[in-house]
Amino acid sequence: MKIDFFVINLDRSRERLEAVRAEAAALGIDLIRVPAVDGKTVPEADQDALDRAGFLRRHGKRPMPGEYGCYVSHVAALRRIAAGEAESGVVFEDDVRPLPELLPVLQSLSEADDWDVVRFAHHRRVRRKAIRNLAQGRQLFATYFGPTGSAAAYIVRREAAGRLADALVPMQLPFDVALERGWATGCRTLDIWPDLVGFGALSKTSLTRETRRYGAMKLPVWRRWPTLLFRAGDLARRIGRTARLPRTPA
């Protein structure tokens, strides 16, 4: 399977780009840069991809400029994959450190047509269901609970990338939350554990990092009832989807 590798990077973050390119080059990977959108430079009136009312209702927080920039940057990367010639595309955020096992695991992933999107960076570990074994001690999984956090590294088939980008617009959730909702996007979305990337020394800053505390963006409790109902329904759909998937053959 031919794979193109993309990295999302802000113009001002040259040091981060050099670091991830060096890590990737050591594995024989040539990264294609996708210029990131700096959400702080986009006035609210010009945030055309954002459904603000939907975001407040589903996420229960006010959107931050960095979240918007991150979201539209990832959608742009998906459009690049859809327009490319490679069978699949990997998207990295520029604070990741690809591990040596990355390429053989992705090659073994391609041996079956049972996925459209596979994420391989996570911030939370949750109960999961094995789908099949991969190389280097990894497994392909579906999750029973979530969100599991992080859109820092994932692979998308070219034929699914355009569909996924279309399904993700307008923005009603942070990108990492929206990406794993395969039951909503119509894409077969799975995960690899253990992760295939680590995080570099520069990972304490990111596209979404803000000086304000994230918790301060929460709506008052009485305005978060729609969010609670949405999350309960989403959890039921996630569990139902995972329960229906076949287990790894013995």
Give a written overview of the molecule:
- The protein is α/β, with parallel strands linked by helices.
- Helix content is 34%, strand content 19%.
- The protein contains 8 helices and 10 strands.
- The strands form 2 sheets. Strands 2-1-3-8-5-9-7-6 form an 8-stranded mixed beta sheet, sandwiched between helices. The chain has a two-stranded antiparallel ribbon with strand order 4-10.
- α2 (52-59) packs across α8 and α3 (65-83) runs antiparallel to α5 (158-167).
- The longest helix has 20 residues, at 225-244.
- The chain is globular.
- The model has no long low-confidence stretch (mean pLDDT 94).
List the helices and strands and how they pair.
Blueprint: E1 3-9, H1 14-25, E2 31-35, H2 52-59, H3 65-83, E3 88-93, E4 96-98, H4 102-109, E5 117-119, E6 128-133, E7 139-143, E8 153-157, H5 158-167, H6 175-179, H7 182-185, E9 189-193, E10 197-199, H8 225-244
Parallel strand pairs: 1-2, 1-3, 5-9
Antiparallel strand pairs: 3-8, 4-10, 5-8, 6-7, 7-9
Helix pairs in contact: 2-8, 3-5
